[in-house]
Design brief:
Elements (H helix, E strand, L loop, with lengths): L1 E5 L3 H13 L4 E5 L3 H9 L5 E2 L10 E4 L3 H14 L5 E4 L5 H6 L9 E6 L20 E5 L6 H13 L3 E5 L1 H29 L3 H7 L2 H6 L7 H10 L1 H23 L3 H11 L1 H14 L1
Parallel strand pairs: 1-2, 1-4, 2-3, 4-5, 5-6, 7-8
Antiparallel strand pairs: 6-7
Helix pairs in contact: 6-10
């Protein structure tokens, strides 16, 4: 099996590692605008060879793992090059625009829009991990528009990688993911910005910041090159979530100003329900 990875970062690299483990004899080719990423991926045995777009006619599977703004031009180009039996998988964090862009493409049936809910704050080939997707949810959009045999091929791969599948239309995906992912990243970036601006002494931050701060700002280490385009593509949904978040922050500030600490306690107690939801997610992942 010939697998081409376009974008040799965390998601693409991790998929390459696990596919090679599960499908012996697979050859993985890499396409990346960063030549250092190509060299690093070969040295780490994430890929075996460098490739270019004209090589895609030899691909059995193409996994596109690049910033979502670049995907809008790259994925149609990929679909132009592939053979009839090739499966093209997109793993970006937004789905509505890319599904709309390629809806009339002659090779639309070869394309599967997915979003694996997995990752870390790190990027580049060195961030690639074995078993990154085990127990994680993979959202698939517009599955009915992909050729059935290619659906089966994709689902077999996802199953071997340990993913749980959920189906969703692109518009709903982008709306929901704005709440549970995109807002978290904005919060982390802005908390980091606030602390850096007010705590001028970096040593104070290092010495005094506890694990709660570190875990909250972990996402602020994420790649701006990846996240700025996500916020742009999902702008309307992100603005809606931010408006609601800002309202809640303002309400909390008002309670503090008015010394309504019993109300603050009630707010936190009600929100503690999130523990049960997240514990339920962990239990599912461990099964």
């Amino acid at each position: 099996m010939n697998v081409f990875i376009i974008g040799l970062g965390l998601i693409g690299g991790s998929m390459a590692l696990d596919i090679q483990r599960e499908y012996k004899g697979t050859t993985v080719y890499g396409i990346d605008i960063n030549e250092d990423h190509i060299k690093e991926a070969i040295e780490a045995e994430i890929i075996q060879e460098k490739a270019i777009f004209s090589d895609l006619n030899n691909a059995d599977i193409v996994i596109v793992s690049i910033p979502v703004d670049v995907s809008l031009t790259v994925i149609p180009k990929v679909l132009d090059e592939i053979s009839d039996n090739c499966l093209v998988i997109d793993v970006g964090s937004t789905k509505e625009q890319i599904c709309d862009i390629i809806k009339e493409h002659p090779n639309r049936r070869n394309f599967l829009a997915t979003h694996p809910i997995a990752g870390t704050e790190f990027s580049g080939p060195s961030a690639a991990l074995h078993n990154l997707f085990n127990g994680k949810t993979n959202i698939i959009c517009e599955v009915e528009k992909t050729a059935f045999k290619l659906q089966e091929k994709a689902l077999a791969i996802f199953s071997k990688l340990g993913m749980r599948i959920r189906y969703m239309d692109p518009k709903s995906h982008d709306k929901h993911i704005a709440y549970v992912s995109h807002l978290s990243h904005i919060s982390s970036f802005m908390l980091g910005k606030t602390v850096i601006e007010k705590e001028k002494n970096e040593r104070d931050i290092f010495d005094m910041a506890g694990s709660g701060f570190a875990s909250t700002v972990r996402l602020a280490k994420s790649s701006p090159a990846m996240w700025a385009p996500i916020f742009e593509q999902n702008k309307n949904n992100v603005i809606e979530t931010l408006e609601e978040y800002i309202q809640n922050l303002q309400y909390f500030k008002t309670l503090l100003e008015q010394d309504k600490f019993s109300a603050i306690y009630a707010e936190m107690e009600n929100t503690n329900h999130i523990k049960q939801i997240l514990n339920g997610i962990k239990e599912v992942e461990l099964r």
